[in-house]
Amino acid sequence: MSSEALLTADYVNESHIRAFAEALDTDADFPDHPSKPVDASAPPSPVSSRIRKVSALSDFAPVNLKVKKRKRKDKMHLKASRHDWTFVLFRWPLLGFIFLFIAAQFGFYVFLRQLVNIKEWISAWRGKKGLLRKKLRASQTYEEWKEAALVLDEYLHFDEWKKEDEDPFYDWKLVRKVQHSLKTLREKNDVRACLGVLETCMRSNFAAVESPRLYSETFLGTKDLIESYFEEQEKALEFIRESPDLKIDEKKRFFKAANTNLGITALCLSGGASFGYYHCGVVKALLDEALLPRVITGTSAGGLIAALCCTRKDAELKQLLVPELANRITACEESLGIWIKRIWKTGARFDPILWARKCTFFTRGSMTFKEAYLRTGRILNISVIPADRHSPTRLLNYLTAPDTLIWSALLASAAVPGILPPVVLMQKLRDGSAVPWNWGSRFKDGSLRVDVPIQALHTYFNVTSPVVSQVNPHVHLFFFAPRGSAGKPVAHRKGKGWRGNFILSAAEQWLKHELTKNFKLIRDLELLPQLLGQDWSSVFLQRFDGNVTIWPRTRFWDWVRILSDPDPQELERMIRVGQLVTWPKLRIIANRAKIEKQIYLGRQSVRKSSKPKAAISSVDTTHQRHGNGLRVPTISTTPPPSGSDRPLSVDTDAEHAFTHNHRAFFRNKRLRISPSTSGTSTPNRHTDPLRSPATRRRWASSLLNGDGVSPPSNISTPGSEGFFTRLRTKSHSGTTVKEMPIDPTEDAWSSDTSDDDDLVEMPDDDRGTLVEESVE
Questions:
Q1: What is the pLDDT of residue 659?
Q2: Which of 216, 270, 274, 300 is labelled catalytic?
Q3: Residues in domain PNPLA (predicted)?
């Protein structure tokens, strides 16, 4: 499809919009009663077949008379809001004094930041160094930017720092040992020893090689030792994936463990009204270098861009991230007179029904979270909070809300008090119709509490490296890296020292902590009243950064147009600014992404290699007998109707529980491998001592300590068992064996994340008797 067709496509589903409008008109406390009066002369609605309950205020009042509801004071609310007389007396004076103190600190903070900017401009933007910096900023592509960054590093002698292995910010001795061991073992074609080394070092931020400090000393890249370390890891993973000396089950267990231990990267797009369109440049820079993560989360304006990314494939997304996209951004096109009337009538500036029609372009119609995941393989996450004050934040994705319409989640994520009223989330049924989700509860903007849901992402998808694009206006001014950031070293003293100087950086940190302390005091003492029905005390007290944080540079005019739509020229500028601030971070993102990619390719290779077994196992889903007499269920691995297009799931317990619907299988029980009851020995188990993961880890540890690279000899034989080993073998001789319950209707091919993968699909030479024991 051409770019023009993609930009002009219409995806509005009128039936879903009508269902959404009816859900908004329904009283949240009484879902069977519409909140608006019903006209008796109007024809009955063809959409709803419910019988309306007829009621009147009294025997003499008309049935359909619009009567204002009597406000009954909630006794529990009054009881909870009662305070001591000292609180009532000192609350407002104390709150005013704290705000005056905050205003003075903020003014001094702005003045201090201007002093730092002036000093950095004098140090960095004069002479040849200033010309090279201007050339760097004028780059049009990432290749041009890299060339200019290398020239600047060479002129400032930053390249000399790259060649030195020693540095106090990482364990360079351990990194050098691992890099040398991987290279040596790969050249010797010793796949099992290489596997043992990788099992030891495949960890998130192993030896601190992912520390941002190691990327803040130069404009491009980091230590040459770290670069070669990641390259050797990539080659070793590829070597293991293509090696014929390892069985499929061994590769499967290794890549699963590697994915769990390393974790994955997620892109978090913050809210920020019209500031959020800077995210387009960030996404474009990542997409052009094939570094766009699979897990993407967004809130408010960031959710709009996240939905655009997760509902389109790469080719479509490249055609949409152009300045002409501004023609479809028309959220603020109404006149000021309409806004004033709506605010006076509803208390909100925008109409949710009108916004629902506009959002369908970014969500590709009434697409659900699960449909978007199956189409693109990307996992969309939208953060929302219930309309009531005390309910926790909810992260919507294809696990927690698979059938929820994405455009309704975007509206809820943008429902800031005074901007948009709380809305109802809509759910798509099997017949294609839309109904309210979660009994018609109302939801609003999740950034009021959690703008970057790092903890929830780690829980659901094992995210250990969040990349945050932060454009929130209320925190944008407070970003300050005193020792530089990735790809942006300190402007003076050849990238060393502190920004400005130590005194200015220390004063900046002190003022920032003082401001945070005062906001915490207001929150803990409950001094701030609820404005527009919302507690605003958590807006400044969240975590707004990640392992890698991207802060697009804004202008003063952006603050004036914070609730305005960009034109094509303005969107082109915002895309370019987003690219310029993302390019310095690409190297630190790419070094980790290459490892995640090899693990992903390894899991794909294992899944494709297990396909020939599917033709046999899919015919019979009953039980088969093995040589030892144990009846083991045959699991069907037939691909689903979508074939190989189904995306590869993320290795997490939550996703496995969702896919397989296993809730209480291992409750209070565990499976162990005991010696075979038939009395036959397993010679292969002792022939290769490196088959055991524990032995491989001990072998890798001794290898890194410099004890040599030769594998250990056979450490045990069947005849050299000790007394307690023979005693345990005899004690299990009378143990009964139970079959594992397997649901023949479940789709075992869609995910390979469960622990029973290691138990059911064991190698023939390692397969013993599955004994089920109660955990005491």
A1: 53
A2: 300
A3: 267-458
